[in-house]
Amino acid sequence: MRTERAAIPLFKVFLAPEGELMPRLRDVLYSGQISEGVPVYEFERKFSAFVGLPNILSFYSGTAALHAALILAGVKAGDEVISTPMTAEPTNMAIRHAGGEIVWADVDPANGNLTAAAISERITPRTRAIMVVHYGGIPAPMDGIREIAGRAGVPVVEDAAHALGARYGDLPIGALSKYAMFSLQAIKHMTTVDGGMLACKDPGDLPRGRTLRWFGIDRQSSRTEVDVSRVGYKYHMNNVNATIGLVQLDHVASVVERHIANGRFFDAALRGIPGLDLCRWDEQAQPSYWFYTVLAERREDLSRYLTEHGIGNSQAHKRNDWHSVFASSRRELPGLDSFYSRMLHIPCGWWVSDEDREYITNTIKIGW
Fold first, then answer.
1. What pTM value is reported for the model?
2. What's the CATH code, domain 1-368?
3. What residues does 109 pair with on adjacent strands?
């Protein structure tokens, strides 16, 4: 039976206080300059400082940023891109947008991330990129993946949509690869309503990235004097979204810190419960816990039980290899079969109070 307490959602949008956000939005909305301009470039600089990565390009969505990364990585029609089905669909749609052929690699049943060994098995002379997702904010085993990629001479694109604020060893997530995408979609750690940021290892990628995001034209060049030599897209961020981002940056550190604090609480409090396993990961990984993933026996029973007690829960994503649009890539993935049959996500975000997390823990401990 559902309790009288307020439900605890799996996802909740964080926006800065109205008194901070609305005056800034009003200023930009009536400034006469609402497309890409100074606020966008300021947001890129300040976001770069926050994530600790020097070369940042903004886009109107994370999907657009991933598409651009694949183009910059040299992916063309018919090239193979190794990827994971355990992600949101945009990860793999971006590969199709670039004309690439998706090659699934298997995941670690302990956390849903690609493994270096699984990637190694799928590399061929046609492989042009490796797409790595840090599922749920748990960093993938980047040391092993980098070694495999380096040996094959293939760039890694990190989809860090779930992993803002995560670290791998002493470095921020995304620091080890040629490209890394951060999503600013509505329910991520930080939102600009929608948006995406692309970190490029090589600063030489920035000029082409800027032209890719706006019809092959660099917005800071004279419109009548440039020559458009390559196909580009309408992928740029605008000043309105950037202004939201600038205000959000004043709060994002505390938001991420709360996700991490709640995740670490569950790491300790949920250990040893019969019928429940916790995710395990590379010792170098420091997750940012976008949501908290448990691996449960009788997963559907646990889901119903939590819902009855007002605790949001979900599988969140359908494994992509089950979609008809990706049917040509299907293969056996026993690690994913194991993970997907047991995984369930529960809330651990900034909105989960100390009382909430105790309630979640105690409810699970009673048993389902």
1. 0.97
2. 3.40.640.10
3. none
